[in-house]
Amino acid sequence: MKKFKYLLVNGCSFSAGGCMYEKIELLNDPTKQKRNRFSKKLSEKLNCEDINIAHSGVSNDRIFRTTYDWIQENKEKVKDTLFVIGLTDSLRKDLWSNFKQEYIISSEIWQDIKFIANDCNTTENEVNQWRDFELKYLINEDEIEKKIIRDCVLFDSLVNGNVVFLNAWRRSDVVHSDLKFLKLKTEKYEGYSWPDYMTAKYSNYRLDHPKELHHHEMAQLLYEYINEKF
After folding, report:
1. pLDDT per position as a tens digit, 85-95
2. What is the pTM of this model?
3. Half-sphere exposure (CA, 13 Å, Cβ side) for 149?
């Protein structure tokens, strides 16, 4: 297996380790989440540095944007880096606020009206008007998913194939046969969706977030896949 010095993981809450534990557990042990999410466990297996820049609620555009930013700031590390990109729900948005002069909430636009209005210094009614127009006239999920795959192809080329894609959205069929998408298999499921895999394998999993057990398992599955592909 190829030796890497760095493991760069980006994605949404599934990759960040969000909701692994109850808040009270993290108050008593603030580093517990970072110690037990799959990126840390995988980096230990690969004997390389864990660099996790994932964040809860973000979009695929934000995931690629911040990964490119990291590459620009760490050009000397790229050739020695293995990337794991945890793709998220396709309808999430990456938004820029002219009011704040920064990127703001990146989650689904139909859920975050109040936050968007606050971050843009406008009214919820104005945000609703924009949202309704976009959803009615400008959104086609199939086209959005084609763009996500194009982004994956371009990124794979940029890093010379040193990337594994982990599908943390609920569309198992949206993959690219020439890229390294982690395929998951259990008695009741075979596909690429981590949520669907956990739902099929664990009777107590109800479309929530991966817990410590699931992160440790994902680290092992990724390690075996990387050992095979690299």
Report:
1. 999 999 898 99
2. 0.95
3. 16
